[in-house]
């Protein structure tokens, strides 16, 4: 077996064998196969696809490239969730304490933001003192004692994905359904949960631009999860508009707490609905479809138990629960409507770019975040506006240029 014949097979529309897939993953991680050959193979996969059997074998080979987290010392059904990423997506901050408050253990590894999509770890780090780098012993002890830990990955999980993803990013091969499915599912399976709820986003602020593409990806991931004996549930959600009213790290923490405290008037229906749906899916999975699942989810929002769980997690991870309110920022600029009509949509991609320009997101891994920076969407899609109405506020600790304000205004499609 050699890498050139593997590339030839995929170029000629042949299915790769399990052995061929293991060979190229092991060879690439070991440094025996160079980037240019894996680039050619990735492009052949991008153009010619993979069968479900090949996608499973790829996921398996990627999992075997590193460590697998052992959560067996935690009692109960461990449930995980993953979002394919979006603008204003603070769902993890809301659903993990809900599940913990309902007695379901949540051991969640999250990531940082890159580009226009935010990351849960950055949002948590906007709380003074909060640590997201936990040793595995502490991570497991927190889940055993409080049912909840949300942290970055310390173990060497799926090193093959780190190398492959970096290469895909620069070779035009990110948008391949089998490659995305294997990338996400290898990390989820290696993270050790018994069940996984996936929130697959579609729209201009997401990887998948259409609902149909999202469904094809969701189905591929469901098949992989079930082949690994994981319970799977796929949730689809619209990312043509940003989720909720706030985009930015601290702003999103504050909004998540408003949802958890049942202060629904301070946030928006799209966010509440997505959080309640995803939490209900997770609770159903852990309880074999308890008939009262949805009511119980709503009850822990209304009685304050879910908010208290988040605060317990913040304290356990060294955070200051009094630092869960917005700080004063140096600059707050209103975005004012120059046209009357109804807001048809708010371009999530543009809003994501505005939030990065304000300092809430990263352009490179080295970018330093302004945790207070971000956007408040005063009006959402469906609202009627008159000329002179404030549609949004921009927050930052550096001066906000007129061009950024203009970009935010143009994100609003008013007709
Ligand atoms: N997220 C991942 O983890 N991998 C992909 O390939 C795409 C999105």
Architecture blueprint of SSEs:
Elements (H helix, E strand, L loop, with lengths): L2 H9 L6 H12 L5 H14 L3 H12 L15 E5 L7 H11 L4 E4 L10 H6 L10 H11 L1 E4 L7 H11 L7 H14 L4 E8 L8 H17 L3 E8 L7 E2 L1 H12 L8 H19 L5 H10 L2 H12 L14 E6 L4 E6 L1 H11 L15 E4 L6 E2 L4 E7 L5 H10 E3 L1
Parallel strand pairs: 1-4, 2-3, 4-5
Antiparallel strand pairs: 6-9, 7-11, 8-10, 8-12, 9-11
Helix pairs in contact: 1-3, 2-4, 4-9, 4-10, 5-11, 5-12, 5-14, 9-10, 12-13, 15-16
The chain binds uracil.
Number of helices: 16
Structural class: alpha/beta
Do you know the CATH architecture of the largest domain?
3-Layer(aba) Sandwich
Largest sheet properties? 4 strands, antiparallel
Unique bound compounds: uracil
| CATH fold-level topology of the largest domain | Pyrimidine Nucleoside Phosphorylase, Chain A, domain 2
Helix content: 40-55%
Q: Under the CATH scheme, which class of the largest domain?
A: Alpha Beta
Shape verdict: globular
Please count the beta strands (DSSP E, at least 2 residues each).
12
Would you identify the CATH H-level superfamily of the largest domain? Nucleoside phosphorylase/phosphoribosyltransferase catalytic domain
Number of separate structural domains:
3
Uncertain segments: none
Alpha-carbon distance between the two ends: 61 Å
Encode the helix/strand succession as letters. HHHHEHEHHEHHEHEEHHHHEEHEEEHE
Mean pLDDT: 95
Catalytic activity: uridine + phosphate = alpha-D-ribose 1-phosphate + uracil; 2'-deoxyuridine + phosphate = 2-deoxy-alpha-D-ribose 1-phosphate + uracil; thymidine + phosphate = 2-deoxy-alpha-D-ribose 1-phosphate + thymine
EC number: 2.4.2.2
GO molecular function: 1,4-alpha-oligoglucan phosphorylase activity; thymidine phosphorylase activity
Cofactor: K(+)
């Amino acid at each position: 077996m050699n890498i050139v014949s593997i590339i030839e097979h995929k170029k000629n529309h042949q299915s790769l064998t399990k052995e061929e897939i293991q060979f190229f993953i092991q060879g690439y991680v070991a440094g025996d196969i160079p980037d240019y050959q894996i680039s050619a193979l990735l492009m052949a996969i991008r153009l010619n696809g993979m069968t479900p059997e090949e996608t499973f074998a790829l996921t398996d080979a990627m999992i075997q490239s590193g460590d697998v987290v052992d959560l067996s010392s935690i009692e109960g059904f461990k449930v995980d969730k993953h979002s394919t990423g979006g603008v204003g997506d603070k769902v993890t901050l809301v659903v993990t304490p809900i599940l913990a408050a309902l007695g379901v253990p949540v051991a969640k590894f999250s990531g940082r933001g890159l580009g226009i999509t935010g990351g849960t770890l950055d949002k948590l780090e906007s709380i003074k003192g909060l640590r997201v780098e936990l040793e595995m012993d502490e991570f497991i002890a927190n889940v055993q004692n409080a049912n909840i830990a949300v942290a970055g990955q310390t173990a060497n999980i799926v090193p093959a994905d780190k190398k492959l993803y970096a290469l895909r990013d620069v070779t035009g091969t990110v948008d391949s359904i089998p490659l995305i499915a294997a990338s996400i599912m290898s990390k989820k399976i290696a993270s050790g949960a018994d069940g996984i709820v996936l929130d697959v986003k579609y729209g201009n602020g997401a990887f998948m631009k259409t609902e149909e593409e999202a469904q094809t990806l969701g189905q591929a991931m469901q098949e992989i999860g079930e082949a690994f004996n994981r319970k799977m549930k796929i949730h689809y959600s619209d990312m043509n508009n940003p989720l909720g009213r706030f985009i930015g790290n601290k702003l999103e923490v504050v909004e998540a707490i408003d949802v958890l405290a049942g202060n629904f008037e301070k946030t928006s229906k799209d966010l509440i609905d997505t959080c309640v749906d995803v939490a209900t899916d997770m609770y159903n999975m852990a309880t074999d479809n308890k008939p009262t699942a949805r009511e119980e989810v709503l009850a822990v929002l209304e009685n304050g138990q879910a908010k208290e769980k988040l605060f317990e997690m913040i304290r356990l991870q060294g955070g200051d629960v009094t630092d869960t309110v917005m700080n004063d920022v140096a600059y707050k600029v209103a975005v004012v409507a120059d046209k009357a009509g109804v807001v048809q949509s708010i371009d999530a991609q543009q809003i994501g770019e505005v939030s990065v320009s304000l300092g809430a997101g990263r352009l490179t891994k080295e970018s330093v975040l302004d945790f207070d920076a971000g956007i408040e969407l005063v009006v959402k899609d469906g609202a009627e506006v008159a000329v002179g109405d404030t549609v949004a506020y921009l927050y930052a600790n550096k001066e906000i240029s007129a061009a950024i304000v203009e970009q935010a205004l143009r994100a609003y499609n008013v007709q």
